[in-house]
Sequence to fold (102 residues):
Amino acid sequence: MSRICQITGAKVTFGSRNHRSGKAKKEGGIGRHLTKRVKRRFYPNILDKNVWVPELNKFVKVRISARALKTINKNGAFRTLVKAGVINAPRCKRKTPAAAAA
Fold:
């Protein structure tokens, strides 16, 4: 499985780290110099969670980031998962005018 949050869409991002050599001037050297830029990855804090959805009366298995877990705690599981498209909202049966008159 890929490391992508199902709610926020957080995924692996790329960056770089500088390698330096030499002795700092304040330590008596001629200064530190950049010798290489090394590629690296930043991984999101992804968790596999079973989230209880009281409206559906069941657990939903999701792969979410820690930030998305805070969003679920704030806004509610059902509302957050429906907005993200992880689950479908159950549709209500609408009464037609002919059925209401009968």
User: Anything to note?
Assistant: The mean pLDDT is 90. The chain has one domain: 13-84. The radius of gyration is 25 Å.
